[in-house]
């Protein structure tokens, strides 16, 4: 059992500390009142990854003690994970305990679940996967009603599908998302819904175009596309681009052009510094961008990308690192001011802060 204080009082104390930290970082920019979105205290996480640890002749789910790779924390259940993950954990353990083909040199297990009730389980091995494993994995997939992915020395075997399908409601419309095994997805599904609705409401109805950098699998792209004339979205990860293209087709959205470029490359293209074959069929001059939406990695945006987005009247920024968010806002603060702020408790029981800000061009 993972020991921690999951009491409401402990949660609220940590959330208040996060709010104070974010407000302190944004106070120099005269930010408006922070809108705070709190998470469920348990069963909020849709993904989980465990090492396996042998003790008393059995394999157990485990996580390593922070800073100590030799001291495991053995886990029977995982309160922060979804109810579905907690249901699957003992059933999967019973399966490998009773089947050598499943347990032989199994060293890691990953769960990916959805709010809509789908599950995918990745089993990682220090050996090639043979026919006996394949037969056992097919039975396991049926028993658990979950797709199974086996990984071994750079090879991958898929039983079922290598993705789950999530369904999220934004402003009364349900969007369908393919979430591939091994690709990034928002871990806190219910909080993701709140983030999507906040971004949708904050953007508002616009009669111009949207540029999105770091679009991932189209998580924000799909609902935001219904608020503008058309969208140009960029992403560098191949698996995320493929998932995003499938999501555009599945949701029958036709006003989005998706390009596999980094934010830095798109900056070069828009500044006419360099031409890219991947943009050969896209007329950049036909866009009338009024808003840029960014959801960068923890490092934030580089200086050139900050200078690029400065040219847009509205900047909608989702951040997973308040320190780099503040650095980026500081660079933009001479031309833009913050008009809306939000804290999304995407990662309860950690110090991580997910936030959103709307910056609008100053009029004087």
Automatic annotation (TrEMBL):
The keyword Methyltransferase applies. It comes from the Bacteria. GO terms for molecular function: tRNA (uracil(54)-C5)-methyltransferase activity, S-adenosyl methionine-dependent. One of its GO terms (biological process) is methylation. Its EC number is 2.1.1.35. Keywords: Methyltransferase, S-adenosyl-L-methionine, Transferase, tRNA processing. It catalyses: uridine(341) in tmRNA + S-adenosyl-L-methionine = 5-methyluridine(341) in tmRNA + S-adenosyl-L-homocysteine + H(+); uridine(54) in tRNA + S-adenosyl-L-methionine = 5-methyluridine(54) in tRNA + S-adenosyl-L-homocysteine + H(+). S-adenosyl-L-methionine binds at residues 186, 214, 219, 235, 295. The active site is at residues 320, 354. Coiled coil: none annotated. InterPro entries: MeTrfase_TrmA_AS, MeTrfase_TrmA_CS, SAM-dependent_MTases_sf, TrmA_MeTrfase, U5_MeTrfase_fam. It is an enzyme of class 2 (transferase). Belongs to the class I-like SAM-binding methyltransferase superfamily. RNA M5U methyltransferase family. TrmA subfamily. Dual-specificity methyltransferase that catalyzes the formation of 5-methyluridine at position 54 (m5U54) in all tRNAs, and that of position 341 (m5U341) in tmRNA (transfer-mRNA). NCBIfam families: trmA_only. This is tRNA/tmRNA (uracil-C(5))-methyltransferase.
């Amino acid at each position: 059992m993972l020991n921690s204080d999951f009491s409401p009082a402990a949660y609220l104390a940590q959330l208040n500390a996060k709010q104070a930290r974010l407000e302190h970082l944004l106070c120099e920019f005269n930010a408006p009142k922070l809108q705070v979105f709190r998470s469920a205290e348990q069963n909020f996480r849709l993904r989980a990854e465990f090492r396996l640890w042998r003790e008393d002749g059995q394999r157990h789910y485990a996580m390593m003690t922070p800073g100590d790779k030799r001291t495991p924390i053995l886990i029977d259940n995982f309160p922060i994970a979804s109810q579905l993950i907690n249901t699957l954990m003992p059933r999967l353990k019973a399966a490998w305990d009773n089947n050598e083909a499943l347990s032989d040199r199994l060293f890691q297990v990953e769960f990916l679940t959805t709010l809509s009730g789908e599950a995918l389980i990745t089993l990682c091995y220090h050996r090639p996967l043979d026919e006996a494993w394949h037969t056992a994995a097919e039975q396991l997939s049926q028993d658990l009603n979950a797709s199974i992915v086996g990984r071994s020395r750079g090879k991958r075997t898929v039983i079922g599908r290598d993705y789950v399908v999530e369904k999220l409601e934004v402003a009364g419309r349900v969007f369908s998302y393919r979430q591939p095994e091994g690709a990034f997805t928002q871990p806190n599904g219910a909080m993701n819904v709140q983030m999507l609705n906040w971004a949708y409401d904050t953007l508002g109805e616009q009669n111009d175009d949207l540029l999105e950098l770091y679009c991932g699998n189209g998580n924000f792209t799909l609902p935001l596309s219904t608020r503008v004339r058309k969208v140009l979205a960029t992403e560098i990860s191949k698996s995320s681009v493929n998932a995003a293209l499938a999501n555009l087709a599945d949701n029958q959205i036709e006003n989005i052009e998706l390009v596999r470029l980094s934010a830095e490359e798109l900056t070069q293209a828009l500044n006419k510094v360099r031409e890219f074959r991947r943009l050969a069929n896209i007329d950049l001059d036909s866009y009338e961008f009024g808003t840029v939406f960014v959801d960068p990695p923890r490092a934030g945006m580089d200086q050139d990308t900050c200078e690029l987005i400065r040219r847009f009247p509205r900047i909608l920024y989702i951040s997973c690192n308040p320190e780099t968010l503040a650095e980026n806002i500081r660079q933009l603060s001479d031309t833009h001011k913050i008009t809306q702020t939000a804290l999304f408790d995407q990662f309860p029981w950690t110090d991580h802060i997910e936030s959103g800000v709307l910056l609008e061009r100053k009029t004087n």
